[in-house]
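Give me a protein, keeping tokens residue-aligned:
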Amino acid sequence: MALFRHRAEVGIISAAAVLIVLGAKPYAGSWNDASRLAAIESLAERGTFRIDESPFLGQSMVAGNSSSAYQPSASELTVLGTYDKLWINGHYYSDKSPVPSVIFAGAYRLWLELGGPRMHDRPDLVVRFLTLLGAGLPCLFAIAMVICLARKYLESAQVRFWYLASFVMATVVLPYTQHLNNGMLLLGVAMPLCGLLDELSEFTKNRWERWGRPALIGMLTGFGYTIDLGIGPALVVATLGFTSWRLGIGSRWLILVVAMIPPILLHHALNYAVGGTLMPANAVLEYLQFPGSPFNDRTATGGMKHSVSGLIIYGLDLLVGKKGFLTHNWPLFLATLGAIRIFWEQPRYRAILGFCLGWAGLSWWTYAATSTNLSGVCLSIRWFVPLLAPGYWALAIFLKEQPRYSRDLIWLSCVGCGMTVVMMVYGPWMPHLVPGWWVWVAVAGIGWGVIRIQEFKCPRKQAVRGLYRPFMRRSFSFV
């Protein structure tokens, strides 16, 4: 129990576990989670990826479907069902990546073998079970790894507390544990992956370090690829770049690459078996032409969607707009600016921060270039939830090198905590702005500005003023 030897850490992770269990909903709340649940139910009960008979397809599509797998007040969802589906050769399929559905279908099949009720009989129990398994458990894995990063990099107990509390209570993590979704699943893979990469050493005689760690890194990276075909490939590129920098192109790196291949091949084999394509099946416009489909060439994700100016505007909107990922996860502002600064100033961290910035940057560019819908009806940008992993890795390093920015972290965490309480009330499938969004933005920005101005005026810190001062001084030293 050395991992949880501090009372503050035990308190935070215990409170998070309670909130996760209490917050898990017993019904599907949107097209997104309903589509995944439909695939799981069909695979476990009927052994097929076809979701034609699933209750999540809606009462208008499935004859005799008397039980509702949706929230009772969501009458439109109950009748029409999920629209996150594909129409292939006269049958409906989920548009979600197939490998996670197979894994969760195995868990649901075990549930049935142990005497658990079927989805048609008790959808509330089954949906809550799958939500806790696919969103709640990954969240606890992520929190455990945040504790490990805090202990490694942060000496001050107060800073460690606020660092951990900010991850749990000042981000979109808890709201997204209320329903099954790819973002939380990939976050639960990405945080342990960051922890393994953080401890990856160049030279070692330990057998686990030499062979086991690279193999596990490869398997986690490959599995991450199968969860989200938007940021999954970016994760592969960033991991290969970091590990080749850290290990060189040798036997250990090759073991990592070999371990990465099986889940990737499994994904493409299943994807081809269902959709007859190696590319994401939901990027094939023909498969989205079912009756009532809201998708067309403009609204479906995939392919270049913008001019250069449109790409810049939409890309910024993804980050700092009304649904922006940074403006719903305030500590990530400090992580982003801090990572750029430390990358510039501290060569020993360039490999790590290159991974963090590279994965986040490639993921952001991929979705900025290929989408137009700001990730649909959801809280903030659901695609970017896994990027909290590299963000908090970078934040730990920045606070280690610049502990005086703990005041900034505390302020941004307090504002984020207030937003998180509101976001938990409405859940991850919020069809509108967070209530009071402009107030939260004003409070966060003004308060942070006051903290920066106060420190700028402090005479004892003349040489290290602000986040950008050292960067600007070095950049223009040739003048």
